[in-house]
């Protein structure tokens, strides 16, 4: 009898303890849908003039002035090794707050378009399949299954790695 009670309670307990459950902002890159935690998003803005910074990797587009703060901007397509695409009316910058070595830092990511905010439960999130060590699985929180589609959930702190932050801090300061 107690084993039946346990198995009935397990899904509820799992949904309360899965740290990945919660609200995500979803966006497109090429034909893929990605999501990042809403708590990491500070602002969504249209594309604006980006000041290029010499001697930076190709995926670092430069910096923008956000109400007096210099914010580095990264093209997520290039960061992920995807083909470049022309910027359109839907292209936008998502300003995120990521954890740096000593403090949180604002960084912008260029995406093809923002979709929606989803409230994901633990039941909708699966662990990332093992693609082998060469694939950047460390960027991923998991895979969400929503309305028959898969959305890739990103750990934005890891995507915008400490190496990127370190390089950009040297530029910005």
What is the topology?
Layout lengths: L1 H16 L4 E8 L2 E6 L3 E6 L13 E7 L2 E7 H4 L12 E8 L4 E8 L1 E8 L4 E2 L13 E7 L2 E6 L1 H4 L2 H11 L1
Parallel strand pairs: 2-11, 5-7
Antiparallel strand pairs: 1-2, 1-8, 3-6, 4-5, 6-7, 9-10, 10-11
Keywords:
173 residues; alpha+beta; 5-stranded mixed sheet; 4 helices
Structure summarized in a few sentences:
This protein is α+β, with helices and mostly antiparallel strands and 173 residues long. The chain is built from four helices and eleven strands; from the N terminus they run αβββββαββββββαα.
The largest sheet is: 6 strands, mixed
User: What is the overall number of helices?
Assistant: 4
C-alpha-based Rg, rounded:
18 Å
Q: Give the total of domains.
A: 1
Kindly identify the CATH topology. Answer: OB fold (Dihydrolipoamide Acetyltransferase, E2P)
Give an overview of the whole structure.
By secondary structure, the chain is of the alpha+beta class. It has a single domain, classed as CheA-289, Domain 4 (OB fold (Dihydrolipoamide Acetyltransferase, E2P), Beta Barrel), CATH 2.40.50.180. It has helices at 2-17, 76-79, 156-159, 162-172, and strands spanning 22-29, 32-37, 41-46, 60-66, 69-75, 92-99, 104-111, 113-120, 125-126, 140-146, 149-154. The strands form 2 sheets. Strands 8-1-2-11-10-9 form a 6-stranded mixed sheet. A 5-stranded mixed sheet has the order 3-6-7-5-4.
